[in-house]
Structures are given as C-alpha cells and as structure tokens.
Amino acid sequence: MEKEWDVIVLGSGLGGLSAALSFAKKGKRVLVLEKGISPGGSASSFLKKGFVFESGATTLVGFEKGYPMDRLTKEFEVQFPILPIKRSMIVHLNGKTIERYKDRELWTREALRVFGGGIRMVFFWKICFFIADKLWDLSGRYKFFPFRNLRDVWQGFKNFRPSDILVFCFSLVSVRFVQKILFLHRNEEWNRFLDEQLLITNQTIAKESPFAMAAAGLTYPNLQNYIVVGGMVELSNVLITRLREFGGEFLTKQEVSKITKKDHTNKVEFTNSQSIDGNGYQLSVGSSHWEVTSKNRDNSVFIAPILVSNLPIWNLVELTDALPQLQTKAKSMEVGIWGAFTMGIAIEVEMDQSTWKDGCLHHQIHLEQALPYGGGHSVFVSLSHPEDLIRTKNRTRILSISTHIANPETWKRDTSYPKRKKDIESIIISALEKTFPWFLREKIVFTHSATPVTWRTWTGRKWGRVGGIPSSYFFNPFRMVSNRSEDPNLLLTGDTVYPGQGIPAVVLGGLHAVEQFYMRKRG
Fold first, then answer.
1. Number of structural domains in the chain
2. Segment 112-135 mean pLDDT
3. Does residue 422 sit in helix, strand or coil?
4. What's the mean pLDDT when you consider all of the chain?
5. SS3 call for 505
C-alpha cells in the first residue's frame, strides 16, 4: 500500500466519504482510513447470527431537488439501493396513535386533532415549514458559514436574500418561546411530543432548541423518507465503489493513534504529490504535510498535504497538538452530550406480506417512565422493509431500536454492567409488546444490545457519544464549529461541525468543506 497521498480522510462516515469523492473527482489521490471493519460510522450495518442489523441511523431523507442527497447522486453519478416509503412515522403517546403524515396539510390536521390549538397550531406549523425550507436553501448557499473573517462575510453577502434575516431571527429564540407567543405551551402532551421529536434530530428539548434548527428537525417526516435495501451501510459501499473508480482507496482496521504536522526539508520527501490547488501549485521547501499514524501493523504511517477529519472534534483534538483553538472549543462543548442505547431484534411474525405492505416502518414509543441509568422517555423503532429480502427473510422481521442515554461517560464494564443492560432490554421489550399486537416475546429469534461502551468500541467515539452537539449550544449560530480548522489544510466534516446532525446535513458539510478549500485557494 502506498504511503503518500494527496488527501487523507479520517473516518468513513458519510460526511468524510462525500468530501473524499469531491476531492477524488477533482483529480486528487484520496485515501480513506476507517477504524472498524465496515464503513459508515453511525450510519452503518453489521451481520450477526445471519441477520443484518443497523448500527445507528435508520431514517433517510434529503433527495428532493437541490437537497444534499440529490446533489450527491447527481454530482458523482451514483445510484443508491433505496425504496421510498409511504408513511414517515407513527408516534405512540399515552394510548394515542399519531400519524406523522408526509403531506403538510394532512399533518397539520393531525396535530389539530390530537393537540388542538386551532388557528394558532396551524400558524405554528406554517412557520415551521417556511423556516425549514429557508434553512435548507440558506445552508446550501452559505458555504463559508460560520463566518471567520471579512472575506467570509463578503462571500455570504453575495449570496444574501432578504428572507435570510427571518431565519437568523428565529435562530435566536427557542421553540418554547414561539409556543408561548402563540399560547401553545400549556398542553403537556404537546410539550412532551415536541421534546421527544426534537431529541431525535436536535439532541435537545423545546425550551433549549433554537427554533430555526428545530424547524428542520420537526419537519423531516414531511420529506420523502426512504429505506436502504440491505441496510444503511450500502450508502457507504456505493460511495466507496465510486471513490475507487476515481482512483481513491479505502482501508479498514486503521484506528488513528497520532496526527503530526511536519515541515518538508526538500521535495524528495514527497515524491508522489500532485497540485493541491488545481492551479499547478507544488509542494516546495518549507511547506508542510500531515503524518497520520495508525495502530495497524502492516500499514501504519501515511502522509498527505491535505487532511480531512470525519472524527468528532473531541476525538480529533486528542490526536494532535496542531489545533489548540479547536481544542479550546471542543472543551467548551463537553457538557450534555448524549450517548445511545440500541437494540436489534429478529422476530418471527405471523402476518403475511400483504398485511405488512402498507404498514409504517418507523415508530416513536413514549414510555410511562424514563428508562433507568440516564435513559430517555421514548424509544425509536424501525422495522425492516418487507421488500428488503436481505434483511427480511421468510417470516422474520428485524427491529432496530434506539434511545438516548445521558452522561455516557458513566457507563463502564463493571460488575453492574450486565444488569443495567438487561434492565433496559426488559423495559423496551415490554413496551414493544404493549404497542404492537404482532410482537410476541416467545417469537423472538435473536436480540443484541449496545450501550455507550459498545459505541465507544465500535466507532472509537469519545465516551460513546453519538448524535453530535445539542443545538442548545447554538442560539448564537456564529458559535457553530466551522468545516475549516485553524490550519487551512485540515478540513472538518461529520456531525459535530456545521451544518450538523443527520445524513443530509453531514453530506452537505462534506461537500462544502471541499468547495471552501478550492474557493480559498482561488481567492
């Protein structure tokens, strides 16, 4: 394996792979290093006991015209094995079944039916839809946000539209504030509904979530939802295949242990380098490169002038001393970061395929009490698609279950660890039995569960933190972590940098990081 590359990408999450493809299409020799044995990060899948389970993310949106996934497929001419689903989500709350209709008018009527509120509720959702649409549009235009200097402000000004002011204003107030203005804050069921929906997408609750970011999260069920045939890992597999067609490479079992910035003493040290700015610029005496050391015995040291980190910022700053500013910022965002408890269940069902055909695949179940050991008040459940014959075999369906865990750093493999796992598993299985008539405990074929400790082992994420940084940190949107580090040749992607969590967001961030890089070089 060659040691010298033009670009090295750390981590094969979808943000990192999007950046890798973008560089590779521009003629760069790109190497992607992955700690695990399969790509995808928090949007991956794995095989166990003959069943394919999702490791994290289970929902997929963002293929509408101009949205990030649409851009990705068109720009790199890739086709994902996806199937559209008719029903976005069902929420089970206090014995009520709430349908998260994709159609905006139908959903508004459903919210009125369940929660009331009259014209005020209608207005709330009209604001949500308007701000969400504008936010996606704005995120696509402001490639240099958050601004770091006057040049960035000028680039933003060139893309400015008057409606952007509204998005900015709504980023300064919370969802709960808007509820109060509309006198919609006294219905406890409504408040609980909003809190649990926002935790899925914004990692925080209504009183702590900026309305602009919350609007995009609350309305994602109103986008066309898809499932990936064979599991979420197939998204990454498609991108890696395309990367290799562009001349790039992907290596597994490459846990990075150290990142060092080094100056060149002569050109010979980096013989395979190509131009890094698209305009014939070559490395010369006094320029620098990144040396990446991994724990792999066979291929442990790689060098490149450009580095892309898809690692969470808390992990990255522990691997290098070259980013003191980012280290300070990462330390300021250590409190209130969530972990996750996930389960995979293979279960036999007696219902035939025609019965499942129009069923909803995604469910949020509100629990009577919060789960113990820092667990959440709800669980999110995704069922395998009946037409996905890789994950749905004969009469066996696969369920992917997840819930939030506060203070993931407190989870350790101590003497109480097995009991804590079993306690949460038991409560979740009981909730599934109460919610789904077809779910019979005696029909379970296989189960597994994962705690923050497991997530730490799988992905290497510090303390097993997943989901990114809660939006409560960003009432000042200029405080977001940029896709650019303090070093111009180290770019950042993933769910801890702008534009944030979710597959469409991290893909957009990966594409923007590379666009920013080339725009700065031209400037």
1. 3
2. 97
3. helix
4. 92
5. helix
481 and 451 housed in the same domain: no
Q: Which residues constitute the domain of residue 160?
A: 103-222
Q: How far is CA 345 from the centre of its chain?
A: 23
How long is the chain?
523
Give the SS3 label for residue 88: coil
**What tokens were used for 182?**
């509309």
Do 483 and 449 reside in the same domain of the chain?
no
Q: Residue 31 and residue 19: Cα distance in Å, rounded?
A: 11
In a domain, 509, yes or no: yes
Task: Give domain status of residue 518, yes or no.
Answer: yes
The pLDDT of 202-216, averaged and rounded, is 97
74 plus 123 within the same structural domain: no
pLDDT of res. 286? 42
Decide if 63 contacts 78 (C-beta within 8 A). no
Please state, for a pLDDT cut of 90, what percent of the chain lies above it.
84
What's the predicted TM-score (pTM) here? 0.93
Q: Are residues 206 and 326 in the same domain?
A: no
DSSP string, 473-503: GGSSGGGSPPSB-SSTTEEE-STTSTT-SSH
pLDDT, one tens digit per residue, over 431-481 is: 999 999 999 999 999 999 999 999 999 899 999 999 999 999 999 888 999
Residues in contact with 367: Cβ distance below 8 Å, sequence separation at least 6, in sequence order: 376, 377, 378, 379, 427, 431
pLDDT of residue 297: 80
